[in-house]
């Protein structure tokens, strides 16, 4: 029998509005997470990305795997808007997903509105200080 602490990937198994953001993380569902997050129909997952400029195809794999479950992807790029490179945008368009990039604060607010409207939305949110 193993003893000690078991470390698991950060995951909240459900959809929840984002209650707060800043200080390097997010608050949702009476919990907090330090770092960036992916908000998907399968739940809210920790996302090991600290800068949108460093995002590559591998960082988007989970989003593309679940793309059939949502129509809109909001990408919070940090403190300021950074456009998504055309080839990344094309991957989502081919999967039938509309992508909107914006600063993280605007993405959080938009995500919460669309979630409240019961829209099929996902979000990839870069943590901000």
UniProtKB/TrEMBL annotation:
Source organism of the structure: Nitratireductor aquibiodomus
SUPFAM superfamilies documented for this protein: MTH938-like (SSF64076)
CDD domains linked to this entry: Mth938-like
Protein name: Uncharacterized conserved protein, contains Mth938-like domain
Pfam families in the cross-refs: DUF498
InterPro entries in the record: MTH938-like_sf (IPR036748), NDUFAF3/AAMDC (IPR007523)
């Amino acid at each position: 029998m193993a003893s000690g602490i078991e470390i698991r990937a950060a995951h909240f198994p459900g959809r929840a509005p984002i209650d707060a953001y800043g200080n390097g993380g997010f608050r949702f569902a009476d919990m907090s997470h330090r770092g960036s997050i992916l908000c998907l129909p399968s739940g809210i997952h920790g996302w090991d990305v600290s800068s949108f400029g460093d995002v590559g195809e591998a960082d988007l794999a989970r989003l593309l795997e679940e793309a059939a479950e949502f129509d809109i992807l909001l990408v919070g790029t940090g403190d300021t808007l950074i456009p998504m490179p055309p080839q990344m945008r094309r991957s989502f368009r081919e999967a039938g997903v509309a992508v909107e990039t914006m600063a993280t604060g605007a993405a959080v607010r938009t995500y919460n509105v669309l979630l409240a409207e019961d829209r099929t939305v996902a979000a990839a949110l870069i943590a901000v200080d």
